[in-house]
Design goal:
Elements: E1 3-11, H1 18-27, E2 31-40, E3 51-53, H2 56-68, E4 77-80, H3 86-102, E5 107-110, E6 115-116, E7 120-121, H4 127-135, E8 141-142, H5 146-153, H6 160-171, E9 177-183, E10 192-198, E11 203-209, H7 220-235, H8 238-258, H9 271-274, E12 283-284
Parallel strand pairs: 1-2, 1-4, 4-5, 5-8, 8-9
Antiparallel strand pairs: 2-3, 6-7, 9-10, 10-11, 11-12
Helix pairs in contact: 1-7, 2-3, 5-6, 7-8
Length: 285
Amino acid sequence: MANILSMQSHVAYGYVGNKAAIFPLQRLGNEVININTVQFSNHTGYGSWTGDIMSLEHIDKIFTGLSDKGILENLDAVLTGYLGDSALGDVLLKWLEIIKSKNPSVIYCCDPVIGDVGRGVFVRPGVPEFFANRALQFSNILTPNQFELTYLTGCEIYSLDDARTACNKLHSKGVETILLTSLTRKDKPSTIIEMLVSNKNEQYLIETPRLAMPISPNGSGDMTAALFLAKFLETHHLKHSLEYTASAIYAVFQETLKRNQRELAIIAAQNQFISPTNNFKAHQL
């Protein structure tokens, strides 16, 4: 069991941000401390929503309260995703420095939410630069999608070699482990999607069928980062963590498609977090 702090968005309805990350982490036996950066009625993919963005002062006070109780000293990992504003990144890095000064072995898993293929950059100005110029040096695990890996490295990714080169570029900047959560390349059929995990010493690739989802569910990247972090904290094994993550994510997508729903079927598919039906295998590059 690990103690994980997850700082992400929160929605009353649906599964994105902390709502997509916390339950899978808990279902796997971890204790989760959640800091919600927003509280919205639903995710913004619906086009309209209500709710509030938490102020920087509010977030800072939550960290202060946790620190006063000694809770930050017992963390095994910190997980972050969507940041509404680059100023929130300043608060995050301030507290990451404090947390790591108390316990240098804490793993920081950063999901650098910037944009996606077909949508481009969809975060506020300053946020992409925050990830590229400041967050990388703190990140033990980075979980970009293909678009985000290109943005962070300047490397256009059309092939597996391109993806490996981009990962190595980030390793040279100090990022220990990179999970490329989606890889589409020209020499693979469109019915296949891949994931790549990389550190300085080894790289593994895995492929799964690409399910024809009527609407691509929001929150899948949030859930992917959480599942990979949980399994890596348990095993400290790149290959096993990649295989588990790909298998569990595929199972949730299958259940979501079966139910013909827009939101991820996280509750219905929860047993798949413990023992995925499919067991996709990775191979070392």
